[in-house]
Write a structure and sequence with these properties.
The strands form 4 sheets. Strands 9, 10, 11, 12, 13, 14, 15, 16 and 18 form a 9-stranded mixed sheet that branches. A 4-stranded mixed sheet has the order 1-3-2-4. A 3-stranded mixed sheet has the order 6-5-7, sandwiched between helices. Helix 23 packs antiparallel against helix 24, helix 36 (638-655) packs antiparallel against helix 47 (889-902) and helix 39 (702-717) runs parallel beside helix 44. With 914 residues, it is α/β, with parallel strands linked by helices. 42% of the residues are buried. Strand 15 (800-803), helix 43 (812-819) and strand 16 (824-827) form a beta-alpha-beta unit. It has 47 helices and 18 strands. The longest helix has 21 residues, at 113-133.
């Protein structure tokens, strides 16, 4: 399995009696690194050669076995190092290297669950080959033979850890197929039932559900029963009082027994081999009351509650407390996801016992008590979509579909509109879409028209409603124009302006003609009526929200300028600004707000760096830029000076206008971010041969299927070899020692669900250099999550991220948190399949032309990709959309400098994620 190893030369070429001198004294880190990743010649204490490991491009250097043992002593292998080490040890050609001292040291250093999983995985894969292909002498000489021979010594080193599901399952394979865990099967079952009982339980369940007889079931059942009894008995002994934090952590992440107020046992949660320690319902409720669950804690907790085995522990009071603690958009999204998944698995019948006893049954029975706990918050797109699934699969939101539709529309109308949009795109409009349309109109009239009885009570709430309105317009884009105009009935210029500002990022999905026809004329009419942009902004400020709204006005004006600029409609807006100097001063002053300086700066930076042929715009930008340089030179506050300096350094780098080179020196940028070196784009596979791997995350809808078809055709034209793996495909392009591999999940339910895991298994720890997201706006979150699943800790090795989704540039700051400071390609507008494919094709061509030592300019790649679309003879809509694609240099560079130079001065108060 060792991909980098080459068989050791035969004995006639390398006499084993030769003696070798170890290289000059190296540090323990260097010895470990060479043994795990490099080429070496392993020698024993007498200098006798035990064997060699060959790695392409690396000459084997003498390495003493004693030094290897010493370098591993007391060390905890990282997950990546463990995977590489056990892959090497399992290689057939490396059997002579596996001495007992080396093996003992490797086992003792493989401590963490993920590292242990890598070890079990390599052993389980090897045992399959050994049992199938090896003779008895070959088995004895293999790593499996070593483990079986020295079982007692090695098993004593296996301290109990909470094994991962994957690691435990591989252990079961070894239990059945080898004598590593015991001299016979009964002994192996007994050992594993102690070390990892959950894995044995899972194996039994799988075999029973498949109708297969398990010969060792009685032994396992007896051992598991004894194990649980012992753990349960030890758990009931007296314990010190726990803090609220300890109670929460145990309830969410650990094994426990749950007891009611009378001490009656409600149920037990088992996790691996951990002791289930006692908790009372009252203690959990006390620990969660007033607490705000994090996203990770909410996901873990609702996953546990949704498991059918835990149904006896799900009490009404406990669930009500947990719902109240699940009060942020992303934690709420985790809740909706688990509930909708559970509802879809349960029989949809009122009298079904499994449903009645489940979490879904409890929520349906106590709907009237539960629904008031779902306070209105800004749901994430994913969370709202899961709400709609839950609405259709349960009676949690209402006694029937009409009631459920009314509740969800009032809570999250955008999710209802998106559902209608998706179903229409699949050619199957929902029967309830007209009822939903009427409810959407009622929602708008109740909240956004002047004097509405449910008008928002804060600026943040107004923005939530405005964002929802833009999403509704997007979702109803296939409806008749008259129906879409009715969505805006009763809204004046001020209301439309505030919706545009709030829903800016979703706005770009509307497309140029929709924005120009439906929204922009309304605001222009307001500008004319007010006499100036400043007067209009004053009119649009919702004064009942107090100073907060007044302070936000300059930035909201700038956001509208950015929108108008993006759609090529900025000239009349700029011309209506009467006092530019004051307007610009207010805009720059907004950078002094520690809670919003970064959002405000993004608006200014985009205005400064966006290309425009307009004289009015050029004059405005020059005045804004001059004032920013003046303020930087005069500023005494280190915090503000670092904000101005970071912005100007980014501007000078992106525009090439080096007005003040001292700023570049004071706020230095790593320009290699967008000029990516060869070594970050290619992994060596052999001498003069290199591979670049891409993961493309596809969405699941009609558009995605069309995009997928177009991409496959493009790959065929490039001469790519296609490998079909059912849930995903791999496209391989080879030329001049360069290999480009593109792993793409199929745009199907199975491809979205299982394809990602299958791709992760196929990559088997190899580095991914490029991530690509293809789909609608909601592709961003799954693309990030699935990239982490596939790459793990190697996520920071990703060199380039391409996002073909609508409004993808809005997520760049968030994606920096996942991938680091990388080149991101994204678009504000509709992600055009033809443009996305052109970017990928040009990117591949640039990769194929690279040589070691070269750097790839990602901005040049984008410029070449857009050149044909930006020509005057191109389709106007296509030309407009191409102009909204960008390599997000401004966002990445500004974020990089803010993190490097501003964070030490400014600690923004983080707003609660509501």
């Amino acid at each position: 399995m060792c991909a980098c190893a080459v068989a050791t030369p035969c004995a006639s070429e390398e006499p084993k009696s030769d003696t070798h001198q170890e290289s000059p004294v190296a540090s323990a880190d260097d010895v470990r690194r060479r043994f795990i990743h490099g080429a070496f010649a392993l020698v024993d204490g007498n200098g006798v050669l035990l064997g060699k490991r060959w790695v392409s491009g690396d000459e084997p250097q003498p390495l003493a076995a004693a030094s290897v043992v010493e370098s591993l002593a007391g060390h905890r292998l990282s997950d990546q190092d463990a995977a590489a080490l056990w892959e090497m040890l399992a290689g057939d050609s490396h059997a002579p290297l596996v001495t007992l001292p080396v093996l003992k040291s490797a086992v003792a250093a493989t401590v963490s669950p993920r590292a242990r999983e890598a070890m079990w995985g390599e052993l389980a894969a090897l045992v399959d080959r050994v049992n199938r292909d090896y003779s008895d002498p070959m088995r004895a000489a293999s790593l499996i033979g070593q483990f079986e021979r020295y079982r007692a010594t090695l098993l004593s080193l296996l301290a109990q850890v909470e094994e991962t599901v994957g690691g435990g399952d591989e252990m079961v394979k070894l239990m059945v197929s080898s004598r590593i865990l015991g001299a016979d099967l009964d002994e192996s079952v007994a050992f594993l039932s102690e070390l990892n009982p959950a894995a044995v339980d899972r194996k039994l369940d799988r075999e029973r559900s498949a109708g297969r007889l398990v010969t060792w079931e009685s032994v396992a059942a007896e051992r598991l029963k004894a194990w649980r009894a012992a753990r349960l008995a030890s758990a009931t002994t007296a314990m010190r009082p726990l803090s609220k934090d300890e109670i929460r952590h145990r309830f969410i992440h650990n094994a426990f027994t749950l007891h009611d107020s009378s001490g009656t046992l409600l149920g037990t949660r088992w996790i691996g081999n951990a002791d289930p320690l006692p908790l009372t319902e009252a203690a959990i409720i006390g620990a969660l009351s007033g607490h705000h669950l994090s996203v990770d804690d909410a996901a873990a907790l609702w996953e546990m509650l949704a498991a059918q085995v835990h149904a006896p522990m799900v009490t009404l009071n406990l669930v009500k407390t947990i719902i109240a603690a699940t009060d942020a958009p992303r934690s709420r999204a985790a809740m909706w996801s688990e509930l909708s998944s559970l509802a879809s698995r349960l029989p949809n019948g009122e009298r079904d016992a499994a449903r009645a006893d489940s979490l879904i049954g409890l929520l349906e029975r106590h709907r009237s008590e539960i629904l008031p706990l779902f306070s209105q918050i800004r749901e994430t797109e994913g969370g709202g979509d899961e709400m709609v699934k839950l609405m259709l699969a349960s009676r949690i939101f209402g006694a029937n579909l009409q009631e459920g539709l009314a509740f969800v529309t009032a809570q999250n109308p955008a999710a209802i509109a998106r559902k209608i949009e998706r179903e229409r795109s699949l050619g199957k409009p929902v029967a309830w879409e007209r009822a939903a349309y009427d409810l959407l109109i009622k929602w708008k009239n109740a909240r956004l028209v002047p004097g509405a009885h449910q008008a928002p009570s804060s600026l943040a709430a107004l923005d939530v409603a405005g964002e929802q309105l833009i999403s509704i317009l997007n979702g109803l884009h296939d409806f008749a124009d008259a129906d879409r105009r009715k969505i805006l009935d009763g809204l004046g210029p001020a209301e439309v302006f505030n919706a545009i500002v709030a829903g800016e990022q979703d706005l770009y999905r509307l497309g140029t003609s929709s924005y120009r026809e439906f929204l922009h004329p309304v605001v222009l009419a307001g500008l004319k009526q007010s006499g100036s942009f400043e007067a209009f902004l004053e009119r649009a400020t919702v004064t009942r929200f107090g100073d907060e709204a007044v302070r936000a006005t300059p930035r909201r004006g700038l956001v509208f300028l950015r929108v108008a600029s993006s759609f090529g409609l900025i000239d009349p807006v700029i011309e209506s600004v009467r006092d530019r100097s004051r307007f610009i001063d207010d805009a720059i002053a907004s950078l002094g707000d520690p809670t919003g300086f970064e959002g405000n700066s993004s608006v200014l930076m985009e205005l400064l760096t966006a290309p425009s042929a307009s004289r009015a715009v050029a004059g405005f930008k020059k005045q804004l830029l001059d004032r920013l340089y003046e303020r930087y030179g005069a500023e005494q506050s280190p915090a503000l000076k670092s904000v101005y300096g970071s912005m100007l350094s980014t501007y000078q780098t992106v525009s090439g206008d080096r007005r003040d080179r001292a700023i570049d020196q004071a706020y230095q940028l790593d320009t290699s971010i967008f000029n990516v070196p060869f070594a970050r784009l290619f992994s060596p596979t052999s001498r003069n041969a290199y591979t670049h791997r891409m993961f493309m995350r596809m969405d699941q809808d009609t558009d995605a299927i069309a995009s997928y078809g177009g991409f496959r055709l493009r790959m065929q034209m490039l001469g790519a070899h296609r490998r079909d793996a059912k849930t995903y495909e791999v496209f391989t392009i080879r030329s001049f020692g360069r290999t480009i591999e593109i792993y793409v999940n199929r745009p199907t339910a199975d491809g979205n669900r299982r394809g990602i895991a299958d791709i992760a298994a196929a990559l088997n720890g190899r580095r991914i250099e490029t991530i690509i997201g293809r789909g609608h706006t909601h592709i961003i979150a799954p693309m990030q999550a699935d990239s982490k699943r596939i790459a793990g800790d190697r996520i920071k090795d990703v060199a380039v991220v391409l996002v073909g989704a609508c409004g993808g540039d809005a997520s760049v700051r968030e994606m920096i948190g996942t991938f680091g400071y990388k080149p991101f390609f994204a678009t504000k507008a509709t992600g055009r399949a033809v443009i996305n494919n052109a970017i990928i094709e040009n990117y591949i061509a640039a990769l194929r032309a690279m040589r070691p030592g070269d750097r790839l300019s990602m901005s040049d790649v984008l410029a070449r990709s857009m050149s044909s679309f930006l020509r005057s003879r191109s389709d106007e809509q296509l030309r407009t959309d191409a102009g909204l694609y960008e390599a997000n240099m401004t966002t990445v560079y500004t974020t990089y400098l803010f993190d490097a130079y501003v964070r030490n001065h400014v600690q923004p108060r983080r707003a609660v994620d509501r």
